[in-house]
Amino acid sequence: MFFVFVVFLFYGSFADDAFIVARYAENLVHGAGLVFNQGDAVNALTSPLHAFFMAGLAWLAGGSVRTYVLLAAVAVFGVAGWAAYRMFAFSPEKARLYQFLLLTFPPVAFWTLGGLETPILLVLILLICACAAQDSNVRGDMGILVLCALAGFTRYDMVLLLGPLVCTVLWRRKGNVRVWGVAIFLATLFALWFAWCYWYYGDLLPTSFYNKNISKSSAAALGKGLFYEFSLVVLLLLPLALALLLGRQKVAENEPSRAEPSRFHALIAGLLLYGAYGLFAGTVHMMYLYRLFVPIIPVLLWAALRYLPVAPKPLGYGLMGLVQLTLVYGIDQHSLNFNLALLIPGGQDWYEFSRAGAGPSNKQANKVFAQQAQAIERHWQTQGQDAALVPRMAVWTEGQPGYQLRNFYVYGPLVSYRHECRADYFKMAHYVQDIQYLADGAAPPQAKNAQGWELVTYDDMPIREWGGERKLIRVLWFFKQPELAHTLPARVHGACR
């Protein structure tokens, strides 16, 4: 019931990047290729499997982000229950506890509904843990390799978490033709995918890799990464441990674990590698509310409960539920990136969406972007332009406006990225999006801005900052004649034309 309640509460809090994937999927289904802007081969996809799943959903049922997240919620709920009883077949009490802890963990519920690849990864990691918990056999090991490959195809950084497990399986089956045959086949598929990416896009990796580029991280970024992971442990895991202990009851301590130690230890090694990577990658754009770490929660909980000699009484479950409800309230009403830095003067600016983003404002933003797209479409139709002219817009939020206005060319840091061409998107666009952070009660905008651009539409979204101060986020759209022609090169490595 808790999971259903949180799903109802968080539904509609879609990440903007979800609509980037949705537009790629729609273009693929309609024959334009796996692209965001038609005729523009730029790879802004961080999850190939997610994109193909969305394309299949669009082809079969005219699917949307809303349909996807509802299916994701059902899948996570169902697989979590099945996997828990596979991992803890020797202890139904621990299986129930595992399922409770996973499904009431606020970031798990939130990112199941975020519209991104996170629930796919959750399902795959749960299946991998369930397989790793069983007695070793050839068929099971082949299944682990396939699941690991799917996880890697969902997000490339899964190689850090699952690489040690893959190596362990291959080492233990070094003389088995079937297992190694599956491994070689999967490796060949990956090689073909990357070869196709290089041929089609001109890049092996998505544009977010170059935009976020964690290799340039500083000591300050490392410090913030350490504090962010510490915050995750304190805010989200320690209270659960305390509540569990306060409501404890003894369980049998001689319950055998069926998991092979080597496979379990390989997952723990992967967990450590992934945690080190998360020090730099866990705080970059679109990783708020611990999104990078959500797929490793099944492994963390398995490690925590594997040798736990206690299980909660009803009082323990009640205390844990109360802790989780408190965290859900904090996320929904105060900060979409709930973390300990909020308690430090100036710390609300350390991480994305810490200061003012909360559940209601996030849902409102999705509605505003969709409504504004309709206003822009109507405005363009009144301009009397040649039907062959492709309208162009420069945006900060590439997903929702781009998804709603699929006949527009979108300029943005991800979807129109070029390595050697840092063109001024605003000078090439007909429509320009501006997002302002203002005091509550700010005067409405003028019909034209300082550059003489015509105001098409705007919306104010009232927000309440951490600490109670009221502000507003103003999203404006301006129309103008482009000062420059479209000068971006046809290929991602080309120079400005």
TrEMBL record:
Claim: Membrane is one of the keywords in the record: yes
Keywords: Membrane, Transmembrane, Transmembrane helix
Record keyword Membrane present: yes
Transmembrane segments: 41-61, 68-88, 108-132, 144-171, 177-201, 222-244, 264-281, 288-308
Official protein name in the record: Glycosyltransferase RgtA/B/C/D-like domain-containing protein
Source species: Vandammella animalimorsus
